[in-house]
Amino acid sequence: QLQVVESGGDSVQLGGSLRLSCAASGFSLNYYAIGWFRQAPGKEREGVSCISVIGGRTNYADSVKGRFTISRDNAKSTVYLQMNSLKPEDTAVYYCATLAACRIHFGPTDADSWGQGTQVTVSS
Question: Is-contact 19 12, C-beta < 8 A?
């Protein structure tokens, strides 16, 4: 089974920044659209952002538009999520997963191979 690995989660203060990374174990991410998702305690997992295979198409949840930026470096087979101006409501476990395509409306049911997640905690 394809497996992705997330890293970069940490605890930060309100307004801080983090960069999450998504890499693959045993295969290349270069052939997949990739989505970032998050799940806060007691809430359903939600789509945060996605990027197409080549990187020409990106989509963002309204809650993170203008603060988060998704990118990919296919030379490193890695996808990044740059998170700026972090808020306490961004606190969650963040997951990346492969997608068939990066569509405007995407969610966990569109995803295939999941990682274990990385914890992001934002304190006020």
Answer: no
